[in-house]
Design goal:
The complex is a heterodimer. Chain A starts with a strand and ends with a strand. By secondary structure, chain A is mostly beta strands. In chain A, about 0% of the residues lie in helices and about 55% in strands. Classes of the chains: A mainly beta, B mainly beta.
Chain lengths: ~110, ~110
C-alpha cells in the first residue's frame, strides 16, 4: 500500500515550457487535491476533484489545468510555465467515509527559470 | 482574507517541556479542525483532529483544545521530544459535503535537546 505517490520528485523548467505532474493513490479515495506550498504562505489549494471525471477550481487555479480520467490518478498540468509557479506541489486524497482528513504525497519541487 | 491564522511563525522549546501551538479562525462555519505535521522534504501527515461538538481531543502526547466562542484552538505536546521538531499546520473544514480544507501558514516548532 503506497498511499499517495507523486511523479516526478524534482523538475526544472524554462519559462514557457509545459509539463504534467502525476498523482496516484491506491486507497480508493473519492477526493483528490493539488496544493502548492510557498515560503510563508502555507498550503494553497489549486484544483480538486470529488470524483472521476469531475474537477473544480481551488484558491489559486490560474495557470494550471487538471484532469481525473481514472479514480486513482489526478494530473496537474502547466501549459506555459512561469517563474511564479516555482513551488513545491503536493497532491492529497481523502475519502467520503473519512472525517475530512487528507493524505498527502511526498511533493514535487518545481523550479521555473 | 486569511480564515485560518497561525500567528507564531516559529516556537522553540526544551525537550521534556510542553509545546503549545496556537491557531485562530474567522469563519464561524468551520466545525472540524485538524493539525498536520510536516518534516522537510516530506508531505504533511495528519496528526489529530477535533469536531466542534467537543472542546478537547487527546491522542497520546498530543491534545487539541477548541474554544469556539473565541474561535481559537491549540495543540499541546507533552512532553516535547526532538523528533517533534517540524512545521505544524492548522486546518479547518466547514463540514457537510464540503471536503476542502483551509490551512494556516504553519508554525515551525524546534525542540532543543
Amino acid at each position: 500500500n503506497a498511499g499517495v505517490t507523486q511523479t516526478p520528485k524534482f523538475r526544472v523548467l524554462k519559462t514557457g515550457q509545459s509539463m504534467t505532474l502525476l498523482c496516484a493513490q491506491d486507497m480508493n479515495h473519492e477526493y483528490m487535491y493539488w496544493y502548492r506550498q510557498d515560503p510563508g504562505m502555507g498550503l494553497r489549494l489549486i484544483h480538486y476533484s470529488v470524483g472521476e471525471g469531475t474537477t473544480a477550481k481551488g484558491e489559486v487555479p490560474d495557470g494550471y489545468n487538471v484532469s481525473r480520467l481514472k479514480k486513482q490518478n489526478f494530473l496537474l498540468g502547466l501549459e506555459s510555465a512561469a517563474p511564479s509557479q516555482t513551488s513545491v506541489y503536493f497532491c492529497a486524497s481523502g475519502t467520503i467515509a473519512g472525517a475530512y482528513e487528507q493524505y498527502f504525497g511526498p511533493g514535487t519541487r518545481l523550479t521555473v527559470t | 482574507d486569511q480564515q485560518v491564522k497561525q500567528n507564531s511563525p516559529s516556537l522553540s522549546v526544551q525537550e521534556g517541556r510542553i509545546s503549545i501551538l496556537n491557531c485562530d479562525y474567522t469563519n464561524s462555519m468551520f466545525d472540524y479542525f485538524l493539525w498536520y505535521k510536516k518534516y522537510p522534504a516530506e508531505g504533511p501527515t495528519f496528526l489529530i483532529s477535533i469536531s466542534s461538538i467537543k472542546d478537547k481531543n487527546e491522542d497520546g502526547r498530543f491534545t487539541v483544545f477548541l474554544n469556539k466562542s473565541a474561535k481559537h484552538l491549540s495543540l499541546h505536546i507533552v512532553p516535547s521530544q526532538p523528533g517533534d521538531s517540524a512545521v505544524y499546520f492548522c486546518a479547518a473544514n466547514s463540514g457537510g459535503s464540503n471536503y476542502k480544507l483551509t490551512f494556516g501558514k504553519g508554525t515551525l516548532l524546534t525542540v532543543n535537546p
